[in-house]
Amino acid sequence: MSRLTADIWVSAYLRRLQLVGIPAFVTARGDATAGAVLVKLNTLDGQARAFQRSFDLISGERAWVVLAEGDEAEVDAALERQKGFDPDLWVIEVEDRDGRHLLDEEGLSG
Question: Domains of the chain (ranges plus CATH)?
Fold first, then answer.
């Protein structure tokens, strides 16, 4: 099965968020073809959570897992460290007081 390029996936994700009125912004633009994507969920109360895609070698399944969570400044620091390791990294910031990010929905979850 072929995979979407990173830029197409990011565009589709941003559009999906826009359709339900969830603001989101690209804060780091990575490699258009194969850059990894991190999603920061900002709940606008000083707290945040960052998600990364994880790959299970046994089952072959992909899932979004929490990379960092807690105080927004600490999550931002974790994202900066990740960008230092991977210059091709995309970072999307989602802002939603209710904690919605849509990553668990069909087409985005895996």
Answer: 6-95 (3.40.1530.20)
